[in-house]
Design brief:
globular; eight-stranded mixed β-sheet; 417 residues; single chain; 16 strands; alpha/beta
Length: 417
């Protein structure tokens, strides 16, 4: 298979940046060391649809070192780092289909191309590859023993497939690992989304009103970091418990229709469609900056925004200005993941845990696939705890252990007051 990347001559720059990321991924370093010796993925063809970033490159290199033959493609048209894609092809011989800014047709063509490896395993971020397999490339399904899924949106889609009994092989929801969603989704998203917004706009957040749509783990991280930079944070929610949590965390909570009138910045991070919708656009503040940090660019009704606009123009690389009536509405990164489109995505230290889970779950599938049903599984707690232990060790943090007396007490029912 011939790779499709922007420019192979960018590989030197990519090599340096991938090395820089690896230095802050101590868990993956240890996992890579063990898997490189044991080769648990020998004779496995693996198709990966992920954000092609420096951190992802280190995961893909680890999988290759573990014995797998790897083909990868981008899981978002704007998240690819072209120098990293060149590095994977030229320096590691990993078949790569990824070009930043590719159109939707090219994006799906890349996914199809990655399947030419005839995968035994899949690794997805958003479930586009798995969906395509089940819809139009079913001929490849018979060779697949299992897969993994990286993000919340993908897990939701997979759970629907499992519920409707159409899922044809077992998949581990890496997103649901404690060492993934508690850290990657909260601290990674919190920092990287604001990084993307600030790079795109060069605007000060202090003293501004920042609306966060959704208070899941990603929304919690974003609200926390925006508040830390001095913004007045408003949260919108559809879940009563999460709304209550946001309120008790010290944030204003209100409906979208009410909040969007006040927001200087609005960022949707729900995983749902048309969160910022047609009826909202006329009531937005003049000059508002809207963005998305959910996986797909469906959270903002961009079609309606374009239709309602009398004029649009590109102001900066990642800012498109729409004139709605007498107001200006500024959309970042075409409504796609702003942290990966306008910045570099999550910091290496949190992806270290997420991608170590990916690598270890791949090994787990090879060893246990015959015992697994065609369902969505959580990451085994033993793997989750292992990742946490290695991370703590790398940070020089020691914790207590239960004494035999404490273990006995916790396992008994007879002891009382």
């Amino acid at each position: 298979m011939k790779s499709d990347v922007k420019n192979l001559l960018l590989n030197t720059k990519g090599r340096d940046r991938v090395e820089w990321a690896y230095r802050d991924m101590p868990v993956l370093q240890e996992v890579n060391s063990v898997l490189s010796r044991n080769k648990p993925l020998k004779n496995i063809n693996l198709a990966a649809c992920l954000h092609i970033t420096t951190e992802t490159a280190n995961l893909l290199i680890t999988l290759k070192n573990a014995g797998a033959k790897v083909a990868c493609c981008a899981s978002n048209p704007l998240s690819t780092q072209d120098d990293v894609a060149a590095h994977l092809v030229k320096d590691h011989g990993i078949t790569t289909f990824a070009i930043k800014g590719i159109n939707d047709r090219g994006y799906y063509k890349h996914i199809v191309n990655s399947l030419a490896i005839k995968p035994n395993m899949t690794m997805d971020d958003g479930c586009d590859l798995v969906t395509l397999l089940h819809k139009t490339r079913r001929k490849y399904l018979k060779e697949i023993i299992g897969g993994t899924e990286e993000t919340t949106t993908g897990v939701i889609r997979l759970q629907s497939m499992s519920k409707n009994q159409v899922l044809k092989y077992p998949i581990i929801a890496v997103n649901n690992a404690f060492t993934k969603h508690l850290f990657d989704n909260r601290y990674g998203t919190g920092q990287s989304v604001l990084d993307g917004i600030m790079r795109a706009t060069n605007r000060l957040l202090a003293g501004k009103t920042f609306v966060v749509c959704g208070y899941g783990w990603c929304g919690k991280g974003l609200a926390m970091r925006a508040n830390g930079l001095g913004a007045n944070v408003i949260v919108t929610e559809i879940d009563s418990t999460k709304a209550l949590e946001a309120k008790m965390d010290g944030f204003q909570v209100m409906t979208g229709s009410e909040a969007f009138k006040k927001g200087d910045f609005i960022c949707s991070v729900t995983g749902n469609i048309n969160v910022i919708d047609k009826h909202h656009f006329k009531t937005l503040k003049d000059g508002v900056i809207i963005s998305n940090a959910g996986h797909f660019n469906v959270e903002i009704n961009i079609k309606a925004l374009k239709k309602m606009s009398s004029k649009k123009r590109k102001l900066r690389t990642d800012i498109e200005e729409f004139t709605v009536g007498k107001k200006k509405v500024n959309l970042l990164s075409d409504g796609r993941l702003v942290n990966l489109s306008a910045a570099e995505g999550h910091p290496s230290s949190v992806m270290d845990m997420s991608f170590s889970n990916q690598a270890l779950c791949s090994e787990y599938i090879v060893k246990n696939h015959k015992k697994l049903k065609n369902e969505v599984y959580d990451v085994p707690l033993s793997i989750d705890n292992k990742v946490a232990r290695i991370k703590l060790k790398s940070m020089n943090v020691k914790i207590d252990k239960l004494t035999s007396e404490q273990t006995k007490y916790l396992n008994s029912w007879e002891s009382g007051t």
